[in-house]
Amino acid sequence: MDRYDVVIVGARVAGAATALLLARAGHRVLVVDRARRGSDTLSTHALMRPAVLQLERWGLLDEVIAAGTPGQDHVVFHYGDTPVRIDTSKRLYAPRRTVLDAILVDAAERSGANIRFGVDVRGLLHDRHGQVSGVRARNPDRTMEDLYAGVTVGADGRRSRVAAAVEPTVTRRGATASAFVYGYWAGIEGDGYEWCYRPGRTAGLIPTNAGRTCVFAGVPRPRFAAELRHDLEGGLHRVLAETTPSVAARVAAGRRCGRLMAYPGTPGWLRRPWGPGWALVGDAGYFKDPTTAHGITDALRDAQLLADALHSALTGELAGHEALGHYERIRDELSTPVFDATEAVAGFGWSLEEVQQLHLTISDAMQREGDVLSGLHMPEVAFAV
Ligand SMILES: Cc1cc2nc3c(=O)[nH]c(=O)nc-3n(C[C@H](O)[C@H](O)[C@H](O)COP(=O)(O)OP(=O)(O)OC[C@H]3O[C@@H](n4cnc5c(N)ncnc54)[C@H](O)[C@@H]3O)c2cc1C
Questions:
Q1: 155: which of 14, 210, 334, 352 fits an S-S bond (Cβ 3.0–4.6 Å)?
Q2: What pLDDT band is residue 1 in, cutting at 50, 70 and 90?
Q3: Which one of 7, 8, 12, 100 would you pick to mutate in the ligand 1 pocket, going by the greatest count of ligand atoms within 8 A of its CB?
Q4: Average pLDDT for residues 364-368, to the nearest whole number?
């Protein structure tokens, strides 16, 4: 029987990054994903400082840049009609998910992880003590296969089947949610990342690969359901014009490429991310409203924290419950300020002064995250093998 140290369900930012780090540390890792290799997913893709730091430390930032991802040395917040320019201490990048996820997958494979696409996990396997011992999966040729591992990681996103099977305790449940429409434009004059706020609406521009700009608009869920859902194009332009007319004018001068995407909104959660034989990482364990554009950044952070914990447990450096308890504590401590601020932004009850204050809270939290990540020892372990 082929038995892996770790089987990971989901091969995007959380799963591929966790696999990369574990494989670099010498563990036998299998990753399965039901999606097609290189496919896109429903997500804009602005990376924040800690994510860029992670990619740099893992030796992957050059690949992101080589893929033609433009770097931004400033961010402009439009609070009503007032633009506030912030120079960033580190260039920021917003690679399309077809670019970023593929770079992580390729790097994980180069490091020795086995990655299989088109494989749909249907359920979990358990040993005679009731501990999770792997997954039951359906292969692309429709055959069923049992895949055994010491630890099963759910990196399978918002609708995680692994989480549904292990039924983790929900330690925080969000109460607010915003809805988004976004798409890609050519020919928009760029000015860094641009985030636009006016009570009741948000919008923004995110320069990305192939000379395109991701244009998005966000509204409370009831407005999306009543007005935008059936007219994505008209709704997007209306919300842009209401939020920041100067940005709307620049978008109107550009050309849309491809169809618009819609996200109707769902409240966030923090779930207990481990138990006997299983762990959760990325959205599967911790999801928050996309309004603060932090999910990828947090997934790359938590991939590091989880890989570090699993490495300690697999090598016997720490008992499993100690290592994974540590993962949970650090994840929750770092996540709480951003989760709370995101709840407030997604609730749309703010004034312009209040939303500005929330952004400062998030900026402070990112600073702390950067400090914690710099102190982790995993990359040194990883590069030594
Ligand atoms: C509209 C929107 C905009 C966003 N914008 C940003 C942004 O600008 N910046 C940012 O940082 N974050 C953003 N996010 C959040 C970000 O998309 C998520 O936090 C991130 O994708 C989480 O990554 P993940 O690897 O945990 O899960 P996912 O990216 O969801 O990947 C999960 C993978 O698991 C696979 N899978 C699921 N079930 C199974 C199964 N049963 N068997 C096999 N495979 C399975 C799926 O095929 C998928 O490939 C946005 C989200 C949304 C919805």
A1: 14
A2: low
A3: 12
A4: 87
